[in-house]
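Priority: medium. Attachment 1 of 2:
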């Protein structure tokens, strides 16, 4: 008994479907890269932030974080700064742009009076756009 495998002219039919397997592989690799890189892009100064119920606001690509730690010392981005040298360090970090928003992070053990003094230092330095940073509830 024989079977005929040839069905005519020998041309293969055109396949109009896209193979999406390579696209899925690329997307999974990118997902893993972003999952690893995202925690590395955050600020590494340990501070215990209070919780807030306010909606999340969009932040700029490179925010300028000023941290007031529990021992009342200042950290600008990742560099410790004296209270007396804070205005000069802010001017260097912002290239003299006084309208740039400063993201103020303070440990929840910091007394309210110390936080207000920090904001007064920012105000006397000419930085009036201050955003307080907190954790989401």
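Attachment 2 of 2:
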């Amino acid at each position: 008994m024989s079977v005929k495998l040839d069905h005519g002219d020998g041309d293969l039919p055109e396949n109009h479907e896209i193979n999406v397997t390579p696209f899925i592989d690329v997307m999974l690799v990118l997902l893993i890269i972003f999952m690893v890189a995202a925690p590395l892009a955050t600020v590494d100064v340990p501070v215990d932030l209070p919780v807030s119920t306010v909606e999340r606001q969009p932040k700029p690509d490179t925010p300028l974080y000023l941290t007031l730690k529990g021992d009342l010392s200042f950290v600008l981005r990742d560099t410790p700064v004296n209270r007396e040298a804070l205005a000069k360090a802010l001017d260097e970090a912002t290239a003299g742009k006084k309208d740039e928003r400063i993201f103020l992070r303070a440990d929840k053990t910091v007394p309210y009076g110390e936080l207000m003094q920090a904001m007064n230092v920012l105000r006397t330095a000419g930085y009036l756009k201050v955003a307080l940073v907190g954790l989401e509830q």
